[in-house]
Protein: Peroxidase
Amino acid sequence: MYISTPLISILAIASTTQALQVSDVQASAAEAKRTVGSIVSGVVDKLTNRQNTCPLVWKEISTTLTAQFLADGQCTDAARAAIRAAFHDCFNGACDGSLILANECSNSENVGLERLCSNLGSLATEKQVGVADLIQFAAAHAIKTCPGGPTVPAKVGRKDSNTANALGILPSGNAKAADLIKLFASKGFSAIDLTALIGAHSTAKQRVTDPSRAGASMDSTPGQWDTKFYSETLKGTAPFTLQSDKNLANSLVTTLPFKTFAASQAAWSAAFVPAMTKMSMLGVSGKLVDCTSALPGGSSKRDVKRSSMFERLGW
Structure:
């Protein structure tokens, strides 16, 4: 069949036009897909960022805690109790708030924590936050509040539990070094971790081991986070020393880190922070939100006066 040249030209033009139209549609579709993808991605990012952003309530809690944990440029008894409470909530099983929610504070091994437990429980209810999170946040806050204290990451999102953990797991003040090393190893801590963690006794005061000397501090500067605990324990010049601390200071396994930390606060902090972070995550699963930004910036050059809430809470 004969087709004229003009007709062929017309058909060619039409074919080209159709191809261009299809190409344009495909390009537009691709562009629309990219636009929708960009919008969806942006929404997801915003939602993710919102979920990963520390709730503002932790800043409010931080302000309250600072007023309780610092006085006259020194960390207070409430701060000491908060640091101790973090260990006591976690080490028996998990960082799950059972110290307060299961009334473990009434146990003999937790003597001295009753007031703190009551007040943190009330604060958690008032601010509608998790008790397990508040215990660990308060400890990180107390450490940071003490002059010289390092920043321990504070994360929230733990699951609370009102089921009591087993008794008799917390080490005694007379424990042998070998027993302590073995116990902490069973929880995933090295001998160096253990030695770094007991440095928290830098701000501690004993009340139970020798009731006749209740309130005696474990180094000469209990209001500061420093290395005198290590040096004074080694020298035997601390106001009061637990036998377990003496045992670790003299153990062939832990005496070297003991001496290292006595000579360098930087070395101690470098070991303490990851060990304490590990402690705060015992038995914890799932994704947590970082609230380290809600902690105070440090207190070595400032003195926050007690607020009226101090009298109301009666730490």
Q: What stands out?
A: The chain has 13 helices and six strands. Confidence is low (pLDDT under 50) at residues 10-14, 39-50, 298-315. The domain at 57-313 is CATH 1.10.520.10 (Peroxidase; domain 1).
